[in-house]
Design a protein that fits this description.
This protein is an alpha/beta fold. Helices cover 30% and strands 27% of the residues. The chain is built from five helices and seven strands. The chain has a seven-stranded mixed β-sheet with strand order 1-7-6-2-5-4-3. It is globular, with a radius of gyration of 14 Å.
Length: 159
């Protein structure tokens, strides 16, 4: 499976999707989150992190610091927000490649379309469209064998 669409009618359903993604994750994978301001990127990140054992209060959008590192029970998480970056060179200047290549962690990249050219070839993209004040449509797209296996597990767990 290379793509899968999930309609989340409420924030609770968005969090449930994040929990399913986290349960299916493998270390070394990058998740690229895209969507407009307020579309739910950070909500999904928070749900993924919580399912991995990160305290919910610790997870926030790293818009001004660019990257947050969290220690989870199952794996570590590197959370990037590239909204304020001028270009890919700024992303690379903070050492992003080292984090993206860390096989013992998972990377979550908000506004990933801004740094698409340097993301690993095999990553899972979560493209979020805001349908209403509470509803979201999430297009999940796998770009390689590891992300496809993760996506299969996510799809199998969603009713």
């Amino acid at each position: 499976m290379r793509s899968y669409v999930v309609d989340c009618r409420t924030e609770r359903e968005t969090r449930q999707l994040g929990a399913r993604v986290a349960a299916a994750l493998e270390t070394g994978l990058t998740i690229a989150l895209n969507g407009q301001l307020g579309s739910g990127k950070t909500c999904l990140v928070r749900a993924i992190c919580c399912e991995l054992g990160v305290e919910e209060d610790a997870v926030n959008s790293p818009t001004f610091v660019l990257m947050q590192a969290y220690s989870g029970e199952r794996m570590d998480v590197f959370h990037f927000d590239t909204y304020r970056l001028a270009d890919v060179d700024e992303f690379l200047a903070i050492g992003a490649e080292d984090y993206l290549l860390d096989s013992k962690a998972v990377c979550l990249v908000e506004w990933a379309e801004r740094v698409r050219d340097v993301l690993p070839a095999d990553h899972l993209a979560l493209d979020i469209t805001q349908v209403s004040a509470t509803a979201r449509r999430v297009q999940c797209v796998a770009s390689g064998p590891v992300s496809a296996a993760v996506l299969e597990r996510v799809a199998a767990g969603i009713s």
